[in-house]
Design brief:
By secondary structure, this protein is α/β, with parallel strands linked by helices. It has four helices and 39 strands. The strands form six sheets. An eleven-stranded mixed β-sheet has the order 10-13-16-19-24-27-30-33-36-38-39, with helices on one face. It is flat and about 105 Å long.
């Protein structure tokens, strides 16, 4: 494909700075780009790379004014570049179409218009699936589950009974939605399972990565709020409530009955104990262990997690412990010498 910068700018609603006739034949990252490629710069702290890149043009925000190559100014360079990538590399995915003859459908299954179900998928009794939803090969949908419209479920996803999935949801391979919560009681030294009779509700526009597990509630609902995006390998326990537009990154774990507000970010490998609340816009930095509730608009870090500025000060002090130990040893020697001198008097 060949496009001029002017043509690209019109599609992404940007403004060309420089030669609008520059011909673009490909897309690439700023470090890997070669002549003919267009790239992007989303963070101004990486602006020195503009002097090094071999790209023919760069998509950037308006704060980038100086560049040896033509620019396209946009409000959101990352989103604009994603649109350009889709132009040059349209999706090659070939979704299933229609109902495969090997798919197994139970009694009283309700299918909307243009639903597609892949080979060997199992749809249990009384399941409802909305218009244009696609269910790939080998998926299991438990009885009484409701799935909305325009939802995409990739191969080998298991959705247990009586779960509710909204519209435009994406669930990637290997995820399990609605498995039993981890509940046991100790009876005479033995672990007895506590029945988990609640459900899971996945609201609209949620994306769930590969091999994610979301447990059903003990009595009521585990809820994943509208617009939330969940990375691969995340565990969400029973009765957890995740607020709208939150981000949960790989290997994070949320214990039972914890509540996340709106726009919460859990970075990679962060862990939350149960029965706490994180307010709106909370950010939990990577590998942090959150042991108590966090107020809104707070960033925390460390184990146990603290407000990140305090945590950095604590960490700085810890790094100085070897030096402080040496000082203490020197002071002990001086005190001992003074005590010996006093005894001689």
């Amino acid at each position: 494909m060949r496009m001029t910068l002017k043509e690209i700018a019109e599609i992404i609603h940007g403004e060309v700075v420089g030669d609008a006739g520059t011909v673009i034949t490909g897309v690439s990252g700023i470090k890997e780009a070669k002549s003919g490629d267009i790239t992007f710069l989303a963070n101004s702290k990486y602006s020195p790379l503009l002097q090094q890149t071999k790209a023919s043009a760069v998509i950037a925000s308006s704060e980038i004014q100086s560049c040896p190559r033509p620019l396209i100014h946009t409000d959101n360079p990352s989103l604009a570049f994603a649109k350009v990538v889709s132009l040059f590399f349209p999706s090659q995915a070939k979704h299933p179409k229609g109902i495969h003859p090997t798919a197994i459908l139970g009694k009283d299954v309700k299918l909307g218009k243009d639903v597609s179900i892949g080979a060997y998928a199992v749809i249990e009794d009384e399941v409802s699936i909305g218009d244009n939803t696609i269910i790939y090969t080998g998926c299991y949908i438990g009885h009484g589950t409701k799935i909305g419209s325009d939802t995409l479920i990739y191969p080998r996803v298991s959705i247990r009974e009586a779960v509710t999935i909204g519209n435009r949801v994406v669930i990637h391979s290997g995820s399990v939605i609605g498995s039993d919560g981890f509940g046991f009681a100790s009876v005479q030294g033995l672990r007895q399972r506590i029945p988990q009779i609640g459900t899971v509700v996945i609201e609209d526009d949620v994306e769930i990565g590969a091999n994610v597990t979301i447990d059903r509630a003990r009595f009521e609902k585990t809820i994943i709020g509208r617009g939330t995006k969940i990375d691969n390998l995340v565990q969400i326990a029973h009765n957890v409530i995740v607020g709208e537009n939150s981000i949960i990154v790989a290997q994070a774990g949320i214990s039972g009955s914890t509540v996340l507000g709106k726009n919460v970010v859990l970075a990679g490998q962060s862990g939350l104990v149960g029965h706490i609340t994180l307010g709106d816009n909370v950010v939990v930095m990577a590998q942090s262990g959150v042991s108590k509730s966090v107020p809104a608009d707070t960033m925390v870090w460390g184990y146990p997690a603290k407000e990140h500025r305090q945590a950095k000060r604590v960490n700085a002090c810890v790094q100085r412990l070897p030096h402080l130990y040496e000082i203490v040893e020197e002071l002990k020697k001086k005190i001992q010498e003074l005590e010996e001198q006093l005894k001689k008097k």
